[in-house]
Each structure stands twice: as C-alpha cells, then as structure tokens.
Design goal:
alpha/beta; 21% strand; 12 helices; 10-stranded mixed beta sheet; 32% helix
C-alpha cells in the first residue's frame, strides 16, 4: 500500500498515469487538440488518496480510476474562511471558480451570486445534469444550481432548482420536491424502486431513489443505483448535439469517514469506482468527452497500516471531521493534461472552461 501511495505521488510530479490494463479498449486521442464536447465531473465526497488505497486493499486488480486515468493532479481544498473546508465551500469553489466561506452554496465570499458551471454551460447551449447518492439539496449537488447563504437551507435550495438550469437530476430528496410543480415545468419524474432507468427516453427528468430523503447505503442494498442513474443521465443528456455537463457525486464515502467506519468508506468507494468504469467505457468510445474524478475534501484523516505481522491493511482515523489534506484529481480524455500539477480547487472551474474553449 505504501508503494501505491508513492507511485501515485510520483505520477503527480510527472503529470501522467499509465493506462495499462484498462478495463476498456483504449482509443488513442490527442489530448492537446481533440475537441471537448462533453465534460463529466465525478466527485467522491471526502475521498483522498487513503480512501482510494483502502478500496484498493480489497480488490486484486487495479481500481478502474487508476486504470483509466491519464493525468493526475492535486487539489488544495482550503476555503476562503477556514483551512478546513466544508462541502458547501469545497463544491462551490469548483462550481464558480472562486474560494468562498464555509457553508456557502453558489455564492462568493462576499455573499454575492456567481454563475455556477451548470448555469454558465446551460446558457452556452449544453445540457446539464446531476447524479448523487444523497439528497439533491445536499451541499455538493446544490452548489451546481443554487445560491444560498447556508447549505442547510433546503427549502430555498429547492426553489433555486425550479429555475430550470438543470435538465437531468437523479438522487434523493423526494420529500422536499413538489412533483406537480416539476411536471408543470416540463420534467418527467421517476422512482428507481419502481421504474427501469434504462428505459428513460426524455431530455428533462428528475429521478429519485425512493420516497425518502436519502438513498440507503450500498451495503444496505442500494445496488447499482449510482451506475444506473449515471448512465441514464448520460444517455439522455447526450441527445443534445451541443454536448453536456454532468456532475456525479459518490456522496456517502464522506459519511463513512465521518462515522470512522472503514467498511462504509470502502463499499461506497468501490461502488463509485464501478461507476467510473462504466463512464470510462462510454467516454472512451465517444472520444469527445473529458472526465475528471476528484473530491471536495478528505474526511476522517484515514491512515492504513499493518499490525502484528498481519499483512492485510488495517485502518485508523484521526478525526470525525474533514481534513486539509490535498485530494487527487484524476483526468482522462481530450484536454485531460490541463489537470496535472498542484493547484487550488477553484482552478478546476477554469480548466473545465478552457477545455471546452468557453470564456466565462
């Protein structure tokens, strides 16, 4: 495991990861000249190198995120108000391209409104989508469509969703949404427990895991919801000839970190990695899609070690909260080279726009 961490850090210095042993056929793409039509941003909430290493300790083959990635960077996650960010400030920094204060949603540090990536790209003619394993009003997904002083203002965040800048949204949060209002605005609605997401054929819809606020843990039977939801979003967003932007969050990796529960962290990370594999297969065949996999912060201060001659990884946490440890940024597809190096989390926003050749 120590070798794995060292290898990743060395790859960060050189800027490039090997794509050997990829789970899909590698289609050679000139990452400097090929046009980017679509961007898929995948956020493993609370997922640092240690969380990925913990997941790797449970499987024989390299993780899909390692196999697929072509370039690696490190994102510095501190907010404008604190060395240790929360998810609101962390996701907002990526979404608006500026550091902000903890708990902010889609606002600058002076509380003024800034365009989110979803809003900006929607105005530019691209379809936009969100997928999460938490409620859609939670900090990370909300940071891509809402503008509120505090991440816990769920009712106000839902009101912002009705503004119509998101075409496809899938996650939890059913009790907070007015389905009649969604239908009036032109959205179809689906429940994963009742509907086959493979059969969805519409460019505007909101899908919920069930009628509760949050999907259950993967270990409690959530199944392939994250993968199925992500691929349903991609299939329908891809109907737009101008391309799309999709944010996918593996939300509950963070919750496992807060609980200091390594099994929770690992099962959620492996579910997220399985979704990355499906996205990678589609993106590689598409050839015009940039995929970025990162985190808003690390949670739990997770460490891996061996004890008393036991060759299996053991796990320890240093906190029940977030940490200020930089998090990895894996990227593949056209223009993925932009994401190598070490930079502030807020710079991811500009790198995405540069890849799309769009000026804010």
């Amino acid at each position: 495991m120590r070798f794995l961490l060292v290898s990743l850090l060395l790859a960060c210095v050189s800027g490039k990861l090997s794509a050997q042993n990829s789970p899909v056929e590698i289609i050679k793409v000139d990452s400097t000249t090929t046009k980017v039509k679509n961007v898929i941003l995948m956020i493993g909430d609370g997922t640092g190198l240690a969380q990925w290493s913990a997941a790797q300790s449970r499987v024989k083959d390299p993780l899909h995120v390692y196999r697929l990635s072509e370039y690696l960077g490190l994102s510095k996650t501190s907010s404008a108000s604190h060395f240790i960010t929360d998810s609101g400030a962390g996701a907002t920094a990526i979404s608006i391209g500026e550091k902000t204060y903890n708990t902010a949603i889609g606002l600058r540090k002076d509380s003024s409104i800034a365009f989110t990536l979803s809003e900006l790209l929607h105005v530019k003619g691209k379809s936009t989508g969100l997928v999460a394993t938490c409620g859609l009003t939670h900090a990370t997904p909300a940071s891509f469509f809402a503008h509120q002083l505090n991440r816990y203002m769920d009712k106000e965040i839902v009101e912002d969703f009705y503004g119509g800048f998101i075409d496809v949204a899938i996650g939890g949060g059913f009790p907070l949404f007015d389905t009649a209002r969604l239908h009036k605005l032109g959205y179809a609605t689906y429940l994963y427990k009742n509907d086959n997401f493979d059969s969805i054929d519409t460019t505007d819809f909101v899908g919920f895991y069930d009628t509760s606020n949050h999907p259950v843990k993967y270990s409690q039977g959530r199944g392939n919801f994250l993968k199925d939801a992500t691929m349903a979003a991609i299939r329908n967003l891809n109907k737009n000839e101008n391309g799309f932007f999709l944010m996918v969050e593996g939300s509950q990796i963070d919750w496992g970190g807060h609980d200091n529960d390594p099994e929770y962290v690992i099962s959620e990370a492996l579910d997220f990695d399985s979704t990355i594999a499906a996205v990678g297969k589609w993106a590689k065949s598409n050839g015009e899609t940039l995929v970025i996999v990162t985190a808003d912060h690390e949670t739990g201060g997770l460490s891996l070690y061996e004890e008393n001659g036991n060759k299996e990884a053991q796990f320890a946490f240093s906190t029940e909260h977030h940490t200020g440890i930089p998090v990895p940024v894996f990227a593949f597809g056209p223009m993925s080279y932009l994401f190598k190096g070490v930079y502030e989390n807020s710079e991811i926003h500009g790198k995405i726009l540069k890849a799309l050749n769009i000026k804010p």
